[in-house]
Amino acid sequence: MGRLRCTLQYDGTLFNGFQIQPGQRTVQGELEKVLAKMHKGRSVRIVASGRTDSGVHAKGQVIHFDSFQRIPGEKWKQALNAQLPSDIYINHVESVSDDFHARFNVVEKEYHYYVLNQTQPDIFKRNYVYHFPYKLDIEKMKEACRYLEGTHDFTTFSSAKATVKGTKVRTIYQASVWNNGSEIEFIFRGSGFLYNMVRILVSVLLDVGQGKRNPEDIPDLLEKRDRRLVGKTIDPQGLYMWKVKYNDVEKNT
Amino acid sequence: MGRLRCTLQYDGTLFNGFQIQPGQRTVQGELEKVLAKMHKGRSVRIVASGRTDSGVHAKGQVIHFDSFQRIPGEKWKQALNAQLPSDIYINHVESVSDDFHARFNVVEKEYHYYVLNQTQPDIFKRNYVYHFPYKLDIEKMKEACRYLEGTHDFTTFSSAKATVKGTKVRTIYQASVWNNGSEIEFIFRGSGFLYNMVRILVSVLLDVGQGKRNPEDIPDLLEKRDRRLVGKTIDPQGLYMWKVKYNDVEKNT
């Protein structure tokens, strides 16, 4: 048996999220179906860096699994891509040591969120960006981002349904926003993210951009640790799990 | 009663083509459903500039219909967009005289076809461009385009299943191709197009780009008027009905 690390992308539109669920089409379900075929019908369990919800995309999700097949990485990639549906694509496969763990060894995650800020929707991008037709003050949003960077308790900005036990303190290395015409890109890099955290952060940043809140309100919101103080979780289709970093960064392509 | 002209776009992915068919989701079906609601349940028949097949998109399809509702164009647009599904969008509605006919009065149609020419597919564009992984000689394709422009009998380049009676002579004002890195755009403007004609033309142009045919073969293929001489009709997802022109061009936005 050998352990494999695999970087992949998927279009979340037609998946009921990442995690396997009976009777549902999920990314894990599709991956494990193909892996079982490649292992004489034996079930192969995969472990991901983290889950994504329905409609959320990935450009650089990372998984690991153990296999008795002795196949070089490039052949694994070809074999998997040949059998996977057209909304999952394997970027890279490589052998790793048995102590590599796709979830426990994560040192940094990066998420992107895309907003189309114009009156008219773009129907061809409806599953890939969030359409927001109201005027936004990008500079105010940039100011607010600066208050999010650093180490904070993000209870206010995580789903009240979160089942994670333990601390809700996370370190955000980068929270940024910029626009190219009507296209707005948010980038978040951090040690880890709580459930729905990025989608709640973007929602609050759009409130700031609209003038419903001030950038200076952020420290107070963090301080109060109360999910009820902020608005709804924004729609999933603008969100992309962009990159997952491990200690051996240079190998993670 | 007054006649309305309406320009619209749609994402063809989830439609079984434009034309209404019982039990199928079609663009015409969705439009007529909404129009019936807006006319006290009475059926309102729409007439389009032409049909599009399953998976084919439109950026500027044009339809007309007659209505007893006295509503200004901008309000029509709002009302229709509020009720239509998210993969159809009304660009513009205006009153026209009763002798305007969306199909018979067409003076020019423009289609675009998009190809992604790189080894790796882009899963996020799989329904919006055609992925072609083999090397192409764009200059050769440009040469071939020059032979297509002008007035020719396009029997060789139209579906053998075409039911259209009469001449298969059409005038192509523009047949062009250019690339921006791996993205290739084909533009065809003409007096009219036969069934599947653009998709067959692109297929032959890709053969030329691959070196399977020479640009100079085009006149001979046109001359022979035989559909069996050329390859398969290319996939629909790269095709967009881009623009339809009428005599009063300046009004058609």
UniProtKB/TrEMBL annotation, chains A, B:
- The superkingdom of the source organism is Bacteria
Q: What class of enzyme is it?
A: isomerase
One Pfam family matching this protein: PseudoU_synth_1
Q: Which BP terms from GO are recorded? A: tRNA pseudouridine synthesis
- The keyword tRNA processing appears for this protein: yes
- Provide the Pseudouridine synthase I TruA alpha/beta domain boundaries: 9-105, 144-247
Q: Which InterPro entries match?
A: PsdUridine_synth_cat_dom_sf, PsdUridine_synth_TruA, PsdUridine_synth_TruA_a/b_dom, PsdUridine_synth_TruA_C, TruA/RsuA/RluB/E/F_N
Q: Which GO terms describe its molecular function?
A: RNA binding; tRNA pseudouridine(38-40) synthase activity
Annotated substrate binding lies at Y111
**Which family does the similarity line name?**
Belongs to the tRNA pseudouridine synthase TruA family.
Protein name per its UniProtKB record: tRNA pseudouridine synthase A
Look up and give the organism this protein is from: Oceanobacillus halophilus
